Amino acid sequence: MNIAMVGTGYVGLVSGTCFAEMGNMVTCVDVNEEKIHNLQVGIMPIYEPGLKEMVLQNQESGRLRFTTSLADCIDSVDVVFSAVGTPPDEDGSADLRYVLEVAREFGRRIKKYTLLITKSTVPVGTGAKVRAVIQQELDKRGESVPFGVASNPEFLKEGTAIEDFMRPDRIIVGVEDEEASRLMRQLYRPFTLVSDRVQVCDIASAEMIKYASNSMLATRISFMNDIANLCELVGANVDAVRRGMGADDRIGKKFLYPGCGYGGSCFPKDVKALIRSGAELGYRMSILEAVEDVNERQKQVPFAKLKAAMPELKGKRIAVWGLAFKPGTDDMREAPSLVLIDSLLRSGCEVCAFDPVAEHEAKRRIGEDTIGYCRDMYEACVDADALVIVTDWKQFRVPSWAVLRKTMRQRLIIDGRNLYDPAEAAQEGFDYKRIG
């Protein structure tokens, strides 16, 4: 099948590349000329394990190409995916300007039946707006060209996005007509040969499934962070609580890990957007308001624990392990590390940080010289008065206690991801503070 993928951000680039990997002819479109040029010469705009190699292989095979104009390929494609950004407005609602601009361009260019599939995360009702915009453009042309509109939300996890796309746990398809349903099933058949996991529904339901899924996961995280904080006050162990809860099949084990808050491009934005959608209809999403409030407060917990253990922070050297919002990515959008570092700098601390892949993104967001960037995890701890762990990269899970004892000035660890056994850390001579 011939596919156009508009938008070469995280979702568009991964999706387009994976479709090409399955033998489709894919043209990725983006108005950012520098990004397209970089992709043409093999420079990736994001870090995702395995993505660069897959992009280069499919470019070489001729199945994947990049352009700045949808007009270059619209006549030859069967479907057009819209995978452009939907950043939050100041009021928390999703900004649909790019989504609707794709619809306008689609309406200006199509000459035969073509299906426009929205892969961006959009509020319920966007599908109707997209259809109306396309029809407006056709009316301006004075032409009657058949077209279809569909919703196909993505469920990719940063760090495992390729695996998630190639072996999906479900494929949600929102359609209005049989031809759109047929094309979507044909498109995803190679991914569901073993088990048909395509779920077809109406467009509004597909749009809601995406928001509801991310909001539920965010709710579990904030709930466990609330429980962890209460565990500290009553003397309970949140690890024991988590295991006991997770043994109940009705609850399950996933997303029950307390920490220093969620971040990234999805959960914060989608929770805000769903709250705003309810408000626009006169309905208050009280649970999600609490989820958001708990998460913002939780991001401040590592600094609060550090301050309690070391009241005078001015002039102290603090090591930070992890800058990305989660392991396996260089994404720092809404990252807890940004909240921590801001508090440390305001308190007069010297910050030395290490992250395996997010250093370049940190320099863009924090500054080249605002903090120290280190070559490895132990260099960050040289003469450190405390170590704060923010991202649970695997290489942080089994540290050399001997090296830490030798390099750190004071043996204080604030663990925002509960990586270590408190008894072991204490036996190794460290004052170890964790969540819950």
> Which structural category do the helix and sheet elements fall into?
alpha/beta
The largest beta-sheet arranges its strands as 3-2-1-4-5-6
What is the average per-residue confidence, as pLDDT, rounded to a whole number?
Answer: 96
The geometry reads as: elongated
Could you name the CATH class of the largest domain? Answer: Alpha Beta
H/E series, N to C?
Answer: EHEHHEEHEHEHEHEHHHHHEHEHEEHEHE
- Cα(first) to Cα(last) distance is 51 Å
The percent of residues in helical segments reads 40-55%
Low-confidence stretches: none
Into which percentage range does the β-strand content fall?
5-15%
Q: What is the CATH superfamily label of the largest domain? A: NAD(P)-binding Rossmann-like Domain
Radius of gyration: 24 Å
Q: How many strands, what sense, and barrel or not for the largest sheet?
A: 6 strands, parallel
**CATH T-level topology of the largest domain:** Rossmann fold
Please state the oligomeric state of the protein chains shown.
Answer: single chain
